Each structure stands twice: as C-alpha cells, then as structure tokens.
C-alpha cells in the first residue's frame, strides 16, 4: 500500500520541485513525500533520503524501489546533513524537507514502544545504536531528571506527579513495558478530553 503523507499538496507547493532538480528529504520515513518529489523532478532529478531509523530506511527503499537509480538512502541523523550532502556529490540542491512527525510504520510496526496503544518493550529509540533506551531512563533517572524531561520535552502539566509515581512504582519492580508505564500514569492522571493521560509522557520520551 502506498504511503500517503499529510500536507502533501502544501509541501509540493512550497518546495515547487521541477524537472531535473535535486532535493533532500531529511526525514524520509516511509517515503511518501519523497515519492511525490521524485515524480516531479523526473527524469534526471535526484533525491537524498535521510533517516536515523534503519527500519524507516528499509521501508522507504521498498516503497521507492522504482526510483532506486535516483535516490541515495542514508541511515544517519539530519544533524549531519551538511556532511551528507557534501559527500553525496550533489552539485546543487534546490530544497530540503524536514517532517518531524512520526511515521505510521514507526507507531504500528516498530516493536520499540513508540505507541501507548500497544504493549511493547520500552525502547523508543529511533537509532538503536544509541545505548540508552526509554526503559533505562525510566528506571535509572532521578525524580527531578524525569520531571525535567516530561516538563520540557512533553510540556506535561502534571510532570511532577507522574515522575513521583514512576519512581515509587520502580521501587517495587522494574518498569519494562509500555503497558506498565501507561498503568502507572493512569493511576495518577485522568483523561483530559480526547487526550490520553500518557500522550505527553510518550512524546517526551520519544
């Protein structure tokens, strides 16, 4: 099934890809935006497709296999984009796309605990070469450190209460799965409208 990204028309409007131009998709994900760009820069335009999640690179390669001669796939962080572009040999790049949302594949098929709607291990690493997973953070960081992560990265108003609940729960047993984390959060935080109590905490940990 072809991945259809959100805001596709808006992306194409502002990037305005034309025949034989070169572009960079710095967060290629499942390759939905990349496909549309490649179709517009045919026949000879090329694209650098970057993603730090190796599983996303695998999915993008499969979804974009018909364009393989015009795509350079790079499993790396977009923080290294200048080096990547320089080493690619692109003479000129007309535009760069950053899409900071999560792909459907990451939420539904990664097995790394990105979604609170699935019972999976608490990994949450885009790049599995990074040594620290979400499980390590939840079980080893201090209450103050957890509070700061939840407050700054998730903007969770009840960060202090949730951090305290996590520290209390891990004294009894190690927190290993998304289900266990969600249960801890639900004990101290009610649903706010349509927002699940765990939404902002998972956002912070990702």
From TrEMBL:
One of its GO terms (cellular component) is cytoplasm. It holds the Pfam family Methyltransf_5. GO terms for molecular function: rRNA (cytosine-N4-)-methyltransferase activity. InterPro entries: RsmH, SAM-dep_MeTrfase_MraW_recog, SAM-dependent_MTases_sf. Keywords: Methyltransferase, rRNA processing, S-adenosyl-L-methionine, Transferase. One of its GO terms (biological process) is rRNA base methylation. NCBIfam families: 16S rRNA (cytosine(1402)-N(4))-methyltransferase RsmH. This is 16S rRNA (Cytosine(1402)-N(4))-methyltransferase.
